[in-house]
Write a structure and sequence with these properties.
This protein is mainly beta and 196 residues long. Helix content is 8%, strand content 40%. The chain has two domains: 99 residues, Beta Barrel (Thrombin, subunit H), CATH 2.40.10; 74 residues, Elongation Factor Tu (Ef-tu), domain 3, CATH 2.40.30.
Length: 196
């Protein structure tokens, strides 16, 4: 094992011990005039119409729903612990995902209005050290009161976080404002992420 690899593993080990689990949510868009981001943007997703046990498609809606779901995205219905996986791309239209295909089939019947909790294939769980910025660095423009810095091990990610991505800290989504690589020689040992 080379020096660079040992350093990356050591930093990852330290951040695992001193950090906390967070979720890096990669946001992707389609080319063209309708970018349809994944994960979609929405208030609370819910079921449009009741569905019987055994159903393998369902219609979901939410106020302000835009974007798309991709195969591998997951959801859980209120009152049912089963994790359902989306099996085909679905693009929201008129605030709905219509006849959204998933597997396995519904384990129990679901009522109209049932809440839906989503998980996304592009989510990456990582251990990160989270801390605020020192008061002397808060200028109200580049660094604002409440901004956080997250140190994410370089070995934990195959690509750097992007400014369109989100960081979920204690379940609260934070926008990524800046990403700075931290190097040991020529190797990125961690990513310093400014989250707002």
């Amino acid at each position: 094992m080379g020096f660079d690899q040992r350093i990356r593993q050591r930093v990852a080990s330290i951040l695992h011990r001193r950090g906390k689990p967070v979720l890096l949510r990669r946001v992707t868009v389609l080319d063209g005039p309708a970018p349809s981001p994944n994960p979609p943007t929405a208030d609370r997703l819910s079921v449009v119409a009741a569905a019987a046990a055994g159903a393998s498609a369902i219609t979901l809606h939410a106020k302000g729903l835009t974007g798309r779901l991709e195969p591998g995205d997951r959801f859980v219905l209120d009152g049912d612990a089963t994790v359902y996986t989306i099996t085909a791309r679905a693009i929201a239209a008129a605030g709905r995902f219509t006849a959204l295909p998933f597997a396995p089939p519904l384990a129990v019947p679901v009522d109209a209005g049932a809440a839906v909790a989503m998980g996304f294939a592009a989510d990456t769980p990582v251990d990160a050290r989270i801390e605020g910025f020192p008061a002397r660095l808060v200028d109200g423009t580049l660094i604002q009161v409440g901004d956080l810095q997250a140190m994410i091990p370089g070995a934990a990610l195959s690509a750097p976080p992007g400014i369109t991505d989100k960081l979920l800290i204690d379940g609260v989504p934070k926008s990524i404002v800046a990403v700075t690589p931290q190097y040991a020689a020529t190797t990125v040992i961690c990513w310093r992420v400014q989250a707002r």
